[in-house]
Amino acid sequence: MTNDFIAVFVVVFVQVMVAIIFLRIILDWMVVLAGFQRNNPLYVVAHQLTEPMLGPIRGLMSKILPGALGMIDLSPIIAILLLQALAWLVNGNLRS
Predict the structure, then answer these.
(1) What percentage of residues in the chain have a pLDDT greater than 70?
(2) How many CB atoms lie within 10 A of CB 6?
(3) Of 16, 28, 42, 95, most Cβ neighbours within 10 A?
């Protein structure tokens, strides 16, 4: 019972975080393409919730591949893959 709760909690957490990361990606595009303001409350919340995860990934990528990616930020993709792997591991190990 407890293992199922933990597994469901982690899966739901991952799904919410992935949705927020996608929201941030869209909002970042809107800042660049449509003049969306970075001080908008929706942007601020999405940034505050995702930056603790994306910032370290971005820093690690800049050390591994300095200057190789230019203006392309792949940290959201890496974060989504890591979150999905976490959900898969927890769901597979705790539910079996």
Answers:
(1) 93
(2) 14
(3) 28
CA 74-34-40 angle, 5° bins? 80
In the chain, domain spans: 2-95
Task: Name the strand (E) or helix (H) holding 61.
Answer: helix 41-64
pTM of the model: 0.85
* b (16+ CB within 10 A) / e for 59-90: eebeeeeeeeeeeeeebbebbbeebeeebeeb
Tell me phi and psi for residue 40, to 5 degrees. -65, 135
